[in-house]
Design goal:
alpha/beta, two-stranded parallel ribbon, globular, binds D-xylulose, binds cobalt (II) ion
Length: 441
């Protein structure tokens, strides 16, 4: 059974192609600095947005036309697997990612849910044998069901904590079974609404305990995936414990988990936190904590998590810059945690959206590599921090000074001279690189 009959495998046709079913910039085999584009970008397809999502929003019903929706229950879950692997092959995806409830419906009991999962995981495993598409990461949805109304690992209710822990246990087993590269924790409801009824200390301590138990169990079953925390500042809760990379890192350090975890950084979560995407990538990178990326973008005029497909080239350039400076994403990848707009409801739109996202990151990769090759940012940054290469600056960074010595030095200063930060000039240069990288093609 084919769900995308009229669509052939998407291939690279180059920037001049007018074929909407072709890549214009993403050429998987093209080598850039010793690695193919496919190896650099490690694209992943998010099961929930592409095969499970109905495109409903708080003001209206779902609009998505999905040929597999004629089925119900476990038949629907099985049809989605068939559709997913057809899509992976046609879009040429190296990876995919899912939550437990995306792939199999919850049953009336935990036992029944686990049985449903076992059936679908066995089916996925079978499909993976004949597919190049690997599991980038899996996770469990410990936020949608009403039982998680007060949180999961951070719930005030110990029964809910136990239930959440049982789901994590199963998630780790599923990840092991399917050879997941990473295992993700997004604390959807791990936060609070009001301090009037919240014991923050108990909640955070319990979350730390859950992560330790997960680490211990992964070790016990020999599941060697990289653990990732995906920060998000708000939505659904008003205060999330994993607000951004900086607060997530403090949390991990406090609970002695910093060697076990890295971060899965989502662009739209970064902007919700009042940061740029590249800020979060950079913060993680300089602390050795950049693990993987949820590639999407927010709407500049809307204050919530719109999960749009990434098409902003300026942002993909700066994101790829960070990823290249990190020497790649290791076991991570660029997972399209992105959904087509409610008005883009046809199955064909799923292809157009992924092509747009893949081309945008491929273009970003090429421009970022040129910026690095030409030392564009490094030269300016190196120059700006010159004062720490000699004299008093060198004493400061080498730890050879103290407040008394610095006061003595400052008292002797007759003039302090600052230089321009050259921001506009740098932006113009980035525009020039963006426009000239593809100009002659
Ligand atoms: C929610 C979000 C999640 C995580 C996985 O905003 O990004 O889909 O990526 O739970
Ligand atoms: Co995400």
């Amino acid at each position: 059974m084919s769900y995308f009959k009229n669509i052939n495998t998407i291939t690279y046709e180059g920037p001049k192609s007018t074929n909407p079913y072709a890549f214009k910039f993403y050429n998987p085999e093209e080598e850039i600095n010793g690695k193919t584009m496919e190896e650099h970008l490690r694209f992943g397809i998010a099961y929930w947005h592409t095969f499970t999502e109905d495109l409903s929003d708080p003001f209206g019903a779902g609009t998505a036309i999905r040929p597999w929706d004629k089925y119900k229950g476990m038949d629907l879950a099985k049809a989605r697997v068939e559709a997913a692997f057809e899509f992976f092959e046609k879009i040429n995806a190296p990876f995919f990612a899912f939550h437990d409830v995306d792939i199999a419906p919850e049953g009336d009991s935990l036992k029944e849910s686990n049985e449903n999962l076992d059936t679908i995981v066995a089916m996925i495993k079978d499909y993976m044998k004949d597919s190049k598409t690997k599991l980038l990461w899996n996770t469990v949805n410990n936020f949608s069901h009403p039982r998680f109304v007060h949180g999961a690992g951070s719930s005030n209710n110990a029964d809910v904590f136990a239930y959440a822990a049982a789901k994590v246990k199963k998630g780790l087993e599923v990840g092991k079974e399917l050879g997941a590269e990473n295992y993700v924790f997004w604390g959807g409801r791990e936060g609070y609404e009001t301090l009037l009824n919240t014991d923050m200390k108990v909640e955070m301590d319990n979350l730390g305990r859950l992560f330790h138990m997960a680490k211990d169990y992964a070790k016990e079953i020999d599941f060697d995936a990289q653990f990732l925390i995906e920060p998000k500042p708000k939505e659904p809760t008003s205060h999330q414990y994993d607000f951004d990379v900086a607060s997530g890192y403090a949390f991990l350090q406090h609970y002695g988990l910093e060697d076990i975890f890295k971060f899965n950084i989502e662009a739209n979560h970064a902007t919700l936190a009042g940061h740029t995407f590249e800020h979060e990538l950079h913060y993680a990178r300089i602390h050795g904590m950049l693990g993987s990326v949820d590639a999407n973008q927010g709407h500049p005029l809307l204050g919530w998590d719109t999960d749009e497909f990434p098409t902003d080239l300026y942002s993909t350039v700066l994101a790829m810059y960070e990823i290249l400076k990190n020497d790649g994403l290791g076991r991570g990848g660029l997972n399209f945690d992105a959904k087509v707009r409610r008005g883009s409801f046809t199955p064909e739109d799923l292809f157009h959206a992924h092509i747009a996202g893949m081309d945008s990151f491929a273009a970003g990769l090429k421009v970022a590599q040129r910026l690095i090759d030409d030392n564009v940012l490094e030269d300016v940054i190196g120059e700006r921090y010159q004062s720490y290469q000699q004299g008093i600056g060198l004493d400061i960074v080498q730890g050879n000074t103290d407040l008394r010595k610095l006061e003595e030095y400052a008292l002797g200063l007759t003039e302090i001279k600052n230089e321009s930060g050259k921001l506009e000039s740098m932006k113009a240069t980035i525009n020039q690189y963006l426009l000239t990288t593809f100009a002659s093609k």
